[in-house]
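Reminder to self: C-alpha cells first, then the designed residues, so the page reads top to bottom the way the pipeline ran.
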C-alpha cells in the first residue's frame, strides 16, 4: 500500500468545501479500514485451508492481482488488531497497516488509540516516528539497565574488596600480636638466661673470695710459724708486712664482691622492670583487640616501645646480678652485706 508522505492542505479550499472533502476522506478511511480487516479475515481463512497449501499466492495473483506483501499486511491487521482501530475515521489505511506490523510494540498501539480517541489525525509517518521513539526509549532503558547492573557489580566488588581488606587487617593484627608475644617471650628468656649467668658469675666470685680467704689464713699461719722459728722481732716485722699485703688483697677481693653484689641488685631491678613492661604490653594487646580501627597506629607505637624496651633490657642485663645470701652464722658488716652479700675478713 502507498505510504502517506504529506498531509493535504485543506486550508487551500473554501471552508464549506474543505469540510465536505474532509468528511468524505474520513468515510473512505472507515470503509477502507473495515474492508482491510474483513478482507484480511477472509484471506486468513483461505490460507489456512489444507487444500490451499502451495496455491495461496497464485490464487492471490489470479483473483485480485495482490502482491503477497499486501495480502500478508491485511491478514496481520485482521489478526493482530481486529476491530480495535476499524472505526476510527482519523486513521488512514497505511497507518493501520503500520500499526499491525510485528515491529510495532503494544505501548505504541495504546498511544495511537489514545490519540485517535482524542481526535488527532494519525498518519503512517506519525506511527513510524512513535515506533522509532519507542525503540530508542527501549534501547536507552536497556543501556540504563546495563549501567545499573555494572554499578551494582562495581558496588559488589567494592564491598568484597572492603571485606577482604578488613580480613587482611584482622589477620595482620593477629600476626602482630603473635609476633609481639613471641618477641616478649624471647626477651624474657634472654633476660632469665643472662640473670642465671650473672648468678653463676657471682657464685664463682664468692667461691674465689672464700678460697682467697682460706689461702690468706694459711699464709698468715705459715708466716707466724716461720716468724716464731726466727728472731721474734724480725719475724714479727715480716709477719706484719705479710699481713698488710694480705689485707690489701682482701680489700680488693671485698671490692670485687661488692661490685658483684651491686651488679646482681641492678639485674634484679631490671627483671622487675621487664615484668612490669610485659604486663603493660599484655594490657595494651587486650585494648588493641577491641579497637580494630586504631590497630595500625597502636601496632606502630607498640613496636617502637618494644624496640626501645628490648634495647634497654639488653643494656641493663649486662650489669644486673641477683642478691646473695650470706652463710649461716656470719654477721653483716656493711649496708651492702645487709642487702644479701656477706664479705668475711
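Designed residues (345 positions):
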Amino acid at each position: 500500500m502507498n505510504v502517506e508522505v504529506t498531509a493535504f492542505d485543506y486550508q487551500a479550499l473554501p471552508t464549506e468545501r474543505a469540510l465536505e472533502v474532509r468528511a468524505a476522506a474520513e468515510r473512505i478511511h472507515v470503509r477502507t479500514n473495515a474492508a482491510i480487516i474483513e478482507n484480511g479475515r477472509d484471506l486468513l481463512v483461505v490460507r489456512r485451508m489444507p487444500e490451499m497449501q502451495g496455491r495461496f499466492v497464485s490464487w492471490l495473483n489470479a483473483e485480485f492481482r495482490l502482491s503477497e506483501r499486501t495480502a500478508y499486511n491485511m491478514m496481520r491487521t485482521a489478526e493482530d488488531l481486529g476491530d480495535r482501530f476499524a472505526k476510527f475515521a482519523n486513521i488512514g489505511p497505511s497507518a493501520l497497516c503500520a500499526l499491525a506490523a510485528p515491529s510495532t510494540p503494544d505501548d505504541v498501539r495504546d498511544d495511537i488509540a489514545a490519540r485517535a480517541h482524542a481526535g488527532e489525525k494519525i498518519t503512517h509517518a506519525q506511527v513510524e516516528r512513535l515506533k522509532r521513539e519507542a525503540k530508542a526509549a527501549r534501547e536507552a532503558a536497556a543501556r540504563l539497565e546495563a549501567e545499573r547492573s555494572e554499578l551494582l557489580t562495581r558496588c559488589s566488588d567494592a564491598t568484597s574488596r572492603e571485606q577482604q581488606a578488613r580480613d587482611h587487617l584482622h589477620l595482620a593484627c593477629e600476626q602482630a600480636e603473635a609476633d609481639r608475644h613471641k618477641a616478649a617471650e624471647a626477651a624474657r628468656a634472654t633476660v632469665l638466661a643472662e640473670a642465671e649467668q650473672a648468678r653463676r658469675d657471682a657464685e664463682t666470685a664468692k667461691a674465689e673470695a672464700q678460697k682467697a680467704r682460706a689461702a690468706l689464713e694459711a699464709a698468715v699461719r705459715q708466716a707466724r710459724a716461720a716468724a716464731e722459728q726466727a728472731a721474734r722481732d724480725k719475724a714479727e716485722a715480716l709477719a706484719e708486712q705479710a699481713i698488710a699485703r694480705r689485707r690489701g688483697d682482701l680489700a680488693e677481693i671485698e671490692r670485687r664482691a661488692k661490685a658483684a653484689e651491686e651488679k646482681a641488685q641492678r639485674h634484679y631491678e631490671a627483671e622487675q622492670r621487664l615484668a612490669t613492661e610485659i604486663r603493660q604490653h599484655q594490657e595494651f594487646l587486650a585494648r588493641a583487640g577491641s579497637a580494630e580501627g586504631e590497630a595500625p597506629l597502636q601496632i606502630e607505637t607498640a613496636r617502637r616501645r618494644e624496640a626501645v624496651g628490648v634495647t634497654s633490657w639488653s643494656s641493663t642485663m649486662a650489669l644486673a646480678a641477683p642478691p646473695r645470701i650470706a652463710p649461716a652464722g656470719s654477721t653483716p658488716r656493711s649496708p651492702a652485706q645487709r642487702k644479701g652479700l656477706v664479705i668475711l675478713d
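The chain has a mean pLDDT of 78.
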